[in-house]
Amino acid sequence: MTSRNFKVLGQNHPRVDAYDKVTGRAAYAADVYLPGMLACKLLPSARSHARILRIDTGPAAALPGVRCIITGADFPDVRFGSGALRDRYVMPRDTVNFVGEPIAAVAAVDEATAQEAIELITVEYEDLPAVVNPITSMQPDASTVHPDLEDYQGYGFTMGHNVSTLLDADRGDVDQAFQDADHVIEDVYRSQGINQGFLEPMACVADVEPNGRLVIYASTQGPYQIRAGLAAVLELPVSRIRVVAMELGGGFGAKLRLAFEAFPALLAMRTGRPVKLVNTREEAFTMNGPRLPVTNYIRSGVMNDGTITAREAYTIFDVGAYLGAGPNSGIGHGIGAYRVPNFRLRSYGVYTNKIYVGSYRASGVADMTFAVESHMDHIAHRLGIDPYDLRLRNALREGDVSVSGAVVPSNGLLETLQAVKDAVAWPRQLEDGHGIGLALCEWRSGSGPSTAAISVNDDGTVSLLTGSTDISGSDTSLAAIAAEALGIGMQQVIVAKRDTDMAPYTGQSGGSRVVYSQGTAVQRAANETRDKLIALAAERLGLPQDALGCEDGRVYVLDNEPQGLTFTQLAAASITSRGGPIIGTAALSSMPYTPVFAAQAAEVKVDRETGQVRVLRYVQAQDVGTAINPMAVEGQLEGGVVQGIGRALTEDQQFDPDTGAVRNPSFAAYLMPLAIDTPQIENILIDVPAPDGPFGARAVAEPPGFGPPAAIANAVYDAVGVRVKELPLSGERVLAALKGQSPALTMDVASLRRAEGIAAD
Amino acid sequence: MARFNYLEPHSLDEALRMLADGGDGVRLVAGSTDFLIRWRTGFWRPDAVVCMQHVPGLDAISFNDADGLSLGAMATVQAIEQHDVIRQRYPALAAGATAFAGVQVRNLATIGGNACNASPAGDTLPALLAYDAQCRIVGPAGERWLPLTEFFQGPGRTALQPGEILTELRLPPPPPRTGGLYIKHSPRGAMDISAIGAAAVVSLADDGACRRVSIALGAVAPVPMRANAAEGRLIGQQPTAANIAEAARIAAQSTNPISDVRSGAGYRRDMVQVLTQRTLQHAVATAAGGPAPFGELRRLALQTAI
């Protein structure tokens, strides 16, 4: 692009917290030790759906060292919602809805005693009929997960029997378009349950200050959201709660909202002593919501030349016992990165008696991308069109209208496609058993409430205060944005730690929003700070403001560079100035629609005898706009692809078909890829500046993880000629496909249409 | 995390006494890599744990042409993986050792612990079976020897009587012109539990026929098993592609796998055939010329994953 002469941006900056982390000095929630602190353990439900008749805590309470035991009855009788619907109690009062649901908590002098006490608690259950499969759950005769669903407070989504949310999006005359199409192609895809796989299990310490305020040291992506959740379930005003966000050891969506913090909080309030809760890995797998399986029906009307004219997509999200993640985002991605003039898109969130659904990496979009991008290749092969050409023909262009109705602004989609085509020399004939597959990914830069404050210190450094928890080096990028805007070095920016008493309110760190949206707030706060510095300098130098520049930590006279005032001098002068000490602030609630596009290619080798797929090479080109910190951008791109490869090949959260219990609650049985499993990943950064991002930056984090399942499935097709429509692409599944024994995936879409009063088929 | 008494003997006699005194509630541990996990989950709740780490002399590895290979029960999997003689003379065992978990676990886990844990999926066990390992067992009544094939009684169950300790595994010297390999079937390149494991050791006669054949399989039956019928099909025969394929097919038929989170039973049986065929082919191909370099052996052992 045109000359953008950055001094800080566009260069590699090691993370500002790197030293603390590699030396083990960074403090996580589990590192918090307070005098007199108790340990908390939780009792999981042993049943998938049952009435709790009696909980006998007597023998546990009598155990020496036990200080307090709480159950659901100890909390206010109030439902809260972690997603779009208030559908759960923080601890069930009379009914458990999944195996693993915490039903009692113990505080004791140490963890071993607390665990011993947990094992002494006896629970009398009366089993209720349980439903585990979401397709079954949608049948009228299925047992009901939430009998009082109609009374729950929600946010205006359509609900039904065992349906938490039904979202829809329509455009044009879809049925006519299908009638007019030269070809109609339909598929059903299924993607698996996925655990977020964060390294640091859930942890928190609750303490009660002498004045009665509750303090939570949390591992969280959203300190303000924890505060709001706690306020709701404990019926406290938010002003009585302070949340200190400790270093975050990975969240990926799992730590966006209130999790278990209410248990140590209430125990601390009851005992007057600090209480710590640290999950085991098994608890992280069985108590805290993962992603659950998704079934996708997708149908396209296509003309002979490959133009897609109609799309219908019905997506069934299993949401488990509670809607733990927002109203699943399937409908926004049912047409992918393509212009489709007519569509009917539906997303069902269906209750089952499984662990509740949680958030993970742009929840639902990877599932949709697997379906849409596999389907694109299916269309291409059916019509005899090159899969690359089909994508190029239908790709969104500037000025097109997105699913949500927003006009697509300038973007680098076509450049990403071309870059990947060139990198892998597409189309290329490979040896037997080898193949290349493509996928196109789309996302939007994350928005939401964002704030920043920058104050100038006596020594000319600045302190940056934001409410965003650092994820994946976002603090470093925010510091770089502040440094660039102020004309100082990275070392001159101090990023303050997060605390809801000190930092201004902000949205969660997730969904590719921190650098884009929060970064915009930082840029604006820095601009205001710079303007105030210039104004003060102008006053002191007796010159107009437009005669001054700001660079290298000083405000100088444009016509006479040696003349000027350093930030140190200005900070000192500000103390007695009319305006007082210098602080710049900014706040915003949302950002304009800014899409992010990425094209990806996987090169694989398939063992025809075992069905095992090995990824030999992975290429991705993403329009990141301005790369704030290229090293961090590449880290994000590679990390996302590795997560996507896990989703494509090995990760599979399995559930008992009868009880719904998690079958593989450990990293020994839930297989995330290791370094040895990861191919060479090549990153191509496309720089089409975002019209509204900070210095032209777009969001980066989410799209890399969307593409691998489809790119790899498409490469498997290219290699051995079979299409696997179910994730993960295990050796077992690929071998079954090679033998022509893949199980048929179906969805009774006709009855879903009928339920809506849609006659057409 | 139930409490237990922790006992640390400094001699075999002391360990035997502690076992005798402890009765049913006492558990012997070596590297503790299985124990700690199962204790934390509450699966094992011993009253007392006898840790063998400080009993001297149980971790020796030695080889001579007359007696073969002696593995002290406390020899670590890492020591076996790194041992030159094992890599040269018992390549299937070196392959099993290198396919085992990850570096940190190999540094702690012991060969005796892997045998006594009696998991059908233990990565060193098929190779030990294929090399005809004998177990030296010491107990209150003295010492006895037992073939490893009789040691495994079921998942987690062994022929050890109360108060007995497995102290050594002995593998006879392989005849000249012997090749071998172990392949672990796993979707991940390290830190994974085998979905299927297959070891084959083949000794060739002067005329090129199979003089001695052993095929051992993991994770496809309640215990690690020898595929005797498949071995019988090859012994005395030329190792042609057709004969090897037929033996592999018989091996698959002899298994009794289960379906679990790692794999379905049908796929396990299919994979027994594929892996048996591949290990036999490699064993035959390397019988005359000696084993592949270790790096290649490691790649072959983990070929389904990396």
Fold blueprint:
The complex is a heterodimer of chains A (761) and B (306).
Chain A: H1 18-22, E1 38-44, E2 50-56, H2 58-62, E3 66-71, E4 95-96, E5 102-108, H3 111-120, E6 122-127, H4 134-137, E7 158-160, E8 163-171, H5 174-180, E9 183-191, E10 203-208, E11 214-218, H6 223-234, E12 241-245, H7 262-271, E13 275-278, H8 281-286, E14 294-302, E15 308-320, E16 342-351, H9 365-383, H10 387-394, H11 413-424, E17 434-444, E18 450-456, E19 462-465, H12 474-486, E20 493-495, H13 514-541, E21 548-551, E22 554-557, E23 560-566, H14 567-575, E24 583-588, E25 595-606, E26 613-623, H15 630-649, E27 680-686, H16 708-720, H17 731-738, H18 749-756
Parallel strand pairs in A: 1-13, 11-12, 15-16, 19-20, 26-27
Antiparallel strand pairs in A: 1-5, 2-4, 2-6, 3-5, 7-8, 8-16, 9-14, 10-11, 10-13, 14-15, 17-25, 18-19, 18-24, 21-22, 22-23, 25-26
Chain B: E1 5-7, H1 12-22, E2 26-29, H2 35-40, E3 48-51, E4 61-64, E5 68-72, H3 77-81, H4 84-89, H5 91-98, H6 103-108, H7 111-117, H8 125-130, E6 134-139, E7 142-147, H9 148-151, E8 152-154, E9 157-158, E10 165-171, E11 178-185, E12 196-204, E13 210-218, E14 225-226, H10 228-234, H11 241-253, H12 265-287, H13 294-301
Give an overview of the whole structure.
The complex is a heterodimer of chains A (761) and B (306). In chain A, helix 15 packs across helix 16 (708-720). Chain A is built from 18 helices and 27 strands. In chain A, 58% of the residues are buried. With 761 residues, chain A is an alpha+beta fold. In chain A, the strands form 6 sheets. A 7-stranded mixed beta sheet of chain A has the order 3-5-1-13-10-11-12. Chain A has a 6-stranded mixed beta sheet with strand order 7-8-16-15-14-9, with helices on both faces. The mean pLDDT of chain A is 95. The two termini of chain A are 48 Å apart. In chain A, strand 21 and strand 22 form a beta hairpin. Chain A folds into 3 domains: 18-25 and 447-588, Aldehyde Oxidoreductase, domain 4; 32-128 and 199-250 and 255-286, Aldehyde oxidase/xanthine dehydrogenase, a/b hammerhead (Aldehyde Oxidoreductase, domain 3, Alpha-Beta Complex); 294-445 and 592-738, Aldehyde oxidase/xanthine dehydrogenase, molybdopterin binding domain (Aldehyde Oxidoreductase, domain 4), CATH 3.30.365. The longest helix of chain A is centred in the C-terminal third of the chain and has 28 residues, at 514-541. Chain B has 306 residues and is α+β, with helices and mostly antiparallel strands. Chain B has 3 domains: 5-54, Uridine Diphospho-n-acetylenolpyruvylglucosamine Reductase, domain 2 (2-Layer Sandwich), CATH 3.30.43; 61-171, Uridine Diphospho-n-acetylenolpyruvylglucosamine Reductase, domain 3; 178-300, CO dehydrogenase flavoprotein, C-terminal domain (Enolase-like, domain 1), CATH 3.30.390. A 5-stranded antiparallel beta sheet of chain B has the order 4-5-10-6-7. Chain B has a 4-stranded antiparallel beta sheet with strand order 11-12-13-14. Chain B has a 3-stranded parallel beta sheet with strand order 1-3-2, covered by helices on one side. In chain B, helix 11 (241-253) packs antiparallel against helix 12 (265-287). The longest helix of chain B is centred in the last third of the chain and has 23 residues, at 265-287. The radius of gyration of chain B is 19 Å and the shape is globular. The two termini of chain B are 36 Å apart. The A-B interface holds A 111-112, 115-116, 119, 280, 282, 607, 609-610, 612, 614, 649-650, 652, 654, 663-664, 667-669, 671, 673-674, 676-677, 730-732, 735-736 and B 1-3, 40-42, 185, 187-193, 261-264, 267, 270-271, 274, 304-306.
